Amino acid sequence: MIYDIIDLTNWKKKPQILRELRNAGVVMTERKFRKLVEVNNKGFKEHIQGVKFIAHSNSLGYIATTDEEVIKSSIEDNKKRALTQLKIVSDTYRALGENVNFNLEME
């Protein structure tokens, strides 16, 4: 886990995380970092013992946590991004004169 290499008990921005990883001998791109977060969080969702969720915040950065409220806030941001992308797809298809229906179940 990335938080076994660097301390993510407090919020850190991506440049700081990448710098600390580089200082620990682990060089990675931003894309690779995002993939690492994705793989880590998959382990959390599969209830692998000891795996923490790496939450993100637009203003605070990243943190490894098991705090339910922090995790919910992070995934709400993901939901907003997903809905924005679906709206862009729908509007573009509409502009092309095609009829596309997206059925979304919203809570």
Describe what this molecule looks like in 3D.
- By secondary structure, the protein is mainly alpha-helical.
- It has one domain (2-95).
- It has a two-stranded antiparallel ribbon.
- A hairpin with a 3-residue loop joins β1 (53-57) and β2.
- It has three helices and two strands.
Q: Identify the overall geometry.
A: elongated
Count of individual beta strands: 2
Number of domains: 1
Global mean pLDDT = 90
What is the helix/strand order?
Answer: HHEEH
Radius of gyration: 17 Å
Which strands sit side by side, in order, in the main sheet?
1-2
- Tell me the number of helical segments per DSSP (H or I, 4 or more residues long): 3
Classification by helices and strands: mainly alpha
List the helices and strands and how they pair.
Blueprint: H1 14-23, H2 30-45, E1 53-57, E2 61-65, H3 68-95
Antiparallel strand pairs: 1-2
List keywords for this structure.
3 helices, 107 residues, mainly alpha
Summary, kept brief:
The chain is mainly alpha-helical and 107 residues long.
